[in-house]
Amino acid sequence: MTGFDAYAHAERILTALGAPAGPGSPADPAGGPPQPTTLPPASGVRLHEPAAGPADATDALLAGVWSALARPGALATNFRLVESGRQIDRSRWMRSRVGDGEVLHTALVPVYLHSAVERGATLVISHLEALDEHVMLLCEALEYQLHARAWINCYITAGDTSAFDVHSDDHDALILQLLGRKRWQVDTRVGARSRDLAPDSLDRILEPGMCLSVPRGTAHCVSGTGELTVHLTVGYEPYADLRDETRAAGELLGTPAPEPDPAWMAARLAMRPDRRAGASLRNALTGEVDESTRIRWASRFPPHVRTTDDGLVVTTMGRRIRLDHRLAATIALLSRGGALTWPELVDRSDLPAADLRTFIRFGARNDFLICEG
């Protein structure tokens, strides 16, 4: 798991599922490779089957699944066991008790759980990003690159039937297959909510490393292949709910609302107070930054950066912060959303290490940077 780079993995997924980047495709503003001209969900129902190569990312995410299952004290609401479309009562397969004051202790009951999964039930872990750091970093990276609110659920089964009938979801989704094989049938008519899939629907067996894009409102059916299988579903809402707010305002005024400009929506997202999970207390109080320190932007959505004659105006988590224009390249690196170690930041930034250290401490104390490790 040591080599897992969540930002790079998210970038590979989105590039693979988006429209192919041609010679005229825009380059990444931070100097990265050309980007796809269309990202999910606009690219529709798309399947990516990667060429053979290292499986570090898949292994790291799968390890996160097993870690979440073994973690005592996780919220009971993070787990569901579904069989034939119905949820099995938690008292059968989960034990909970209150101890140590008001602390709720939960633990899975392996015997019942194993039996249920073997006969075709599906174990669902909701918001896996809250239970494992690797999954959390991937979720954050996807949010920054898609300008979206995202969450990650996990599905584990060992049967050859489906716990869910043909259905559609009210959010866009990316499917990441981690273990075993699973059959996906997806109506290629985006927005089709029919209970009967179209004859030319996508019908594929997903294997580890493969990923699939399923736009919201698209009918699909998922079934096992008789072997242990694990996949992640990244649910996401592009630009959070800004589009819905704009439409609702138009309806209230009785006038049709035009599609909001993406640049305007990105700036509005920067006004949201939502913060990533993470703390900078030790670094903020001591100012210590060493080779193990990992630094990332603290807001859940990308900051909005504007250049003025006096320097930079950075809008993040609803606040405007004025910074020296010499910080432009460093902020461009951090505002991509990935976590950088102190040596990586020193190597890629154009600031002297002493000035960079001062900026990192300022960012930690003012809660727009997260410094951990």
Biggest sheet, spatial arrangement of strands: 1-11-8-13-7-6-2-3
Examine the coordinates and then state which fold CATH places here, giving the name of the CATH topology of the largest domain.
Jelly Rolls
User: How do the SSEs run, as a string of H and E?
Assistant: HEHEEHEEHEHEEEEEEEHHHEEEEHEHHE
What's the domain count?
Answer: 2
| CATH homology superfamily of the largest domain | Cupin
The top level CATH class name of the largest domain: Mainly Beta
Coarse morphology: globular
β-strand percent reads: 25-35%
Average pLDDT number = 85
Write structural notes for this entry.
Helix 1 crosses helix 5 (about 135-145). This protein starts with 5 loop residues before the first helix and ends with a strand. The longest helix has 15 residues, at about 55-70. The protein has two domains: about 5-20 and about 25-240, Cupin (Jelly Rolls, Sandwich), CATH 2.60.120.650; about 280-370, Outer Surface Protein A, domain 3 (Alpha-Beta Complex), CATH 3.90.930.40. The model is unreliable at about 20-35 (pLDDT under 50). The protein has helices spanning about 5-15, 55-70, 90-95, 110-120, 135-145, 240-255, 260-270, 280-285, 330-335, 340-350, 355-365; strands at about 45-50, 80-85, 85, 95-100, 105-110, 120-125, 150-155, 170-180, 180-185, 200-205, 210-215, 220-225, 230-240, 295, 305-310, 310-315, 320-325, 340, 370. It has about 375 residues and is of the alpha+beta class. An eight-stranded antiparallel beta sheet has the order 1-11-8-13-7-6-2-3. Strands 10-9-12 form a three-stranded antiparallel beta sheet, with no helix packed on it. Helices cover about 30% and strands about 25% of the residues. The protein has eleven helices and 19 strands. Strand 15 (about 305-310) and strand 16 (about 310-315) form a beta hairpin.
